[in-house]
Specification:
With about 140 residues, the protein is of the alpha/beta class. About 30% of the residues lie in helices and about 25% in strands.
Length: about 140
């Protein structure tokens, strides 16, 4: 499976049987699936979204109360989904073009993307269990 490094954007080929072994980027040596959300911007978004592993994106803003309330739940979901999906955060204030590209009208909005295609979307703050369930259901049906 091809997996883009969320830190440097380098595409890494990882055997699917070894995805749970904590692969590291061949270029920057960062852990590819650290079990914590990574920050995405417009320059890093497309490479990661085109990866073989699903990417669950939280569109958020620092001024948003529900976004701040959901942040620890998203962190917990990242730990639960390590090896199954990459969890990422997009600050809509710093990256308004990404929010517009995906028609994000309210925040927080969760978007599950794999291979460049949107598999699922949901708006509103969610507990970790619902975030994990959304990612797993969308992946199994997509």
């Amino acid at each position: 499976m091809d997996l883009a490094c969320p830190y440097c954007g380098t595409m890494n080929r990882i055997p699917e049987a070894r995805i749970a072994d904590g692969p590291i980027c061949g270029k920057c040596k960062q852990t590819l699936l650290a079990g914590k959300p990574v920050a995405l911007d417009e320059s890093s978004f497309d490479a990661l979204a085109a990866s073989g592993l699903p990417v669950l994106i939280d569109f958020w803003a620092a001024w948003c109360g529900p976004c701040r309330m959901m942040a620890p739940q998203f962190e917990a979901a990242a730990k639960d989904l390590a090896g199954e999906a990459v969890l990422a955060k997009v600050d809509t204030e710093a990256n308004p073009q990404l929010a517009a590209r995906f028609n994000v009208r309210s925040i927080p909005t969760l978007l599950l993307v794999q291979g460049g295609k949107v598999l699922a979307r949901d708006a509103g703050a969610r507990p970790a269990a619902e975030i994990v369930r959304m990612a797993r259901q969308a992946r199994s049906s997509g």
